[in-house]
Design a protein that fits this description.
By secondary structure, this protein is mostly helical. Helix content is about 80%, strand content about 0%. The chain is built from 4 helices and no strands.
Length: about 70
């Protein structure tokens, strides 16, 4: 399950500027509002907490591509 394209775009933007605290805050909001996304959020959170923003961004880019392919 993937979040809405707008959320992916927002999270990607935060990653591009390296806003770790902003990312973690937004991930918490997403998880609270959409519990079905818990696995996706956990994966992203793990990347961010380990300062692996390259993997974080790559994961979001793939998710964005999946959205585009479905449209």
């Amino acid at each position: 399950i993937l979040p809405a394209a707008a959320i992916i775009t927002e999270l990607h933007g935060l990653g591009v500027i390296g806003d770790v605290s902003g990312i973690l805050e937004r991930l918490q909001q997403v998880e609270q509002n959409e519990p079905g996304l818990a696995l996706f959020v956990d994966r992203l959170r793990t990347f961010v907490e380990n300062f692996r923003l390259d993997e974080y961004l790559r994961t979001l880019e793939r998710a964005g591509e999946d959205h585009a392919a479905r449209a």
